[in-house]
Specification:
The protein is an all-beta fold. It has no helices and 5 strands. The chain has a 5-stranded mixed β-barrel with strand order 1-2-3-5-4. A hairpin with an 8-residue loop joins strand 1 and strand 2. The chain is globular.
């Protein structure tokens, strides 16, 4: 289901394990009734698999996440609060 609503929410990091190496971690998203969901991390330093810099917050950290409008791809990490 496509939506035109862009959402920014608080979330709490629950796990930083990424066994499939998909570029995500798990957080409890307040906007989603505190469901634990995968959060995709992004970096301005990503370089198509040749390197890059990613800073994943530790378990228990409160973070900001967003779900872009028109996206069914899920939630993205914005920053630590």
């Amino acid at each position: 289901m496509m939506t035109n609503e862009q959402v920014i929410s608080l979330a709490e990091v629950r796990s930083v394990v990424d066994p499939t190496r998909s570029g995500s971690f798990t957080a409890m998203v307040h906007h989603e009734g505190n469901l634990e969901l995968p959060i995709h991390y992004v970096s301005p330093y990503g370089t198509l698999g040749e390197g890059g810099f990613v800073a994943i917050p530790s378990v228990g950290t409160t973070i900001l996440v967003c779900k872009p409008s028109g996206s069914n791809l899920g939630w993205y990490y914005l920053g630590t609060t």
